[in-house]
Design a protein that fits this description.
The protein is an alpha/beta fold and 339 residues long. It is built from eleven helices and eleven strands. The chain binds phosphoric acid mono(formamide)ester.
């Protein structure tokens, strides 16, 4: 594969890539899905190593990146903070500058995940990724951090292109808060709001009062909608947003007060969220939509965020989207890391 114009580019949020660049990833991912083990792809990262640096646990992201590296002929190495001697607020150790420069001498790219209880305030994970990006000579890829989850967003859009067609303009997304026992970060839903609106979808974000997302992300989503002549609204009614929806994305997220006193108040967040029992996506609500697809980045908090009937029903595309993580990440790695 010839060196791409995207070679060396970081992926921290899809908003920082042009629409043409994002479509290039999706088209290559779709080709890679069709012809998964073709010799065209199996040596793209031959002899190369991708570092996966996880502060938090993962199922799909770790597995799909590891498989992606293998299928491109390379290798993915799992790293976690306890296996390194990094400087922190409380301990002496290696600086990000030194770590990033050294890791760049070994690997063709570095993925980083940092969110939830591994940060002391919203924005800290994003700052860490950008600090690595400042010093590294290889691409820094977000594997989900407190603000964004670009690989998930691209996997979602790949799923929607398959099920709704490549032109998503005018299709309505309901991105609805859901009660749940996990106090989830804003990364997946913020990425979805930004990315779906880039593809011309009408966006309704529904949540109880007090669950606002990052105002900067909302502002950028509104602007994306305006530029694409798409509609944007925020609703606080549990059912209203379902009307006419083509896609329902039901996900728990933490409140803006989740980080206080330098820590995530997880138990308090869960206790607060579990009071909103009516905020579960179920068949009755789905009937208000336009035979909507159900989408979710997983892991799904079944019985809280969504009923089993919807999550495992005929309109659910959760497994397709999870599979797409592999294909979009292969495409991202091929375009940004292969010489
Ligand atoms: N969607 C997602 O990132 O899943 P994991 O947390 O299991 O990696």
């Amino acid at each position: 594969m010839p060196k791409s114009e995207l070679f060396g580019k970081d992926l921290i949020c899809t908003q920082e890539w042009s629409k043409e660049e994002l479509v290039k990833v999706l088209e290559l991912a779709e080709e890679m899905q069709k012809d998964r083990f073709s010799p065209k792809y199996t040596s793209i990262l031959k002899d190369k190593t991708f570092f996966m640096f996880f502060y938090n646990p993962s199922v799909r992201t770790r597995q799909s990146f590891e498989c992606a590296a293998t299928e491109l002929g390379g290798h993915a190495q799992f790293l976690e903070p306890k296996a390194m001697r990094l400087k922190t607020k409380k301990t002496a150790g290696e600086t990000v500058e030194d770590a990033a420069k050294i890791m760049s001498r070994y690997a063709c790219g570095i993925g980083i995940r940092m969110l939830e209880d591994k940060i002391t305030r919203y924005g800290e994970g994003d700052e860490l990724l950008r600090e690595y990006a400042k010093w590294a000579d290889v691409p820094i890829i977000s594997m989900a951090h407190d603000k964004y989850h670009p690989c998930q967003g691209l996997a979602d859009i790949m799923g929607l292109r398959k099920h709704l067609g490549k032109d998503l303009k005018g299709k309505k997304l309901l991105l609805t808060w859901a009660h749940g026992a996990l106090a989830r970060s804003w990364c997946s839903v913020q990425e979805a709001a930004l990315l779906y609106s880039r593809f011309g979808m009408d966006v309704t974000i529904a949540h109880p009062e007090g669950y606002d997302l990052d105002p900067e992300v909302i502002k950028a989503t509104k602007k994306n909608c305006e530029e694409n002549r798409a509609k944007f609204e925020i609703a606080h009614d549990v059912k209203e947003g379902y009307k006419g929806a083509d896609v329902v994305y039901s996900r728990n997220w933490m409140s803006p007060e989740a980080y206080r006193g330098g820590e995530l108040r997880k138990e308090e967040e869960i206790e607060r969220a579990l009071k909103y029992t009516e905020w579960t996506c179920d068949s009755e609500k789905m009937k208000l939509g336009n035979n909507p697809l159900f989408i979710h980045p997983m892991p799904v908090d079944r019985g809280h965020e969504v009923t089993d009937e919807v999550a495992s029903g005929p309109r659910s595309i959760i497994y397709d989207v999870a599979e797409n993580r592999l294909h979009v990440q292969k495409a991202i790695m091929a375009l940004t890391m292969a010489k």
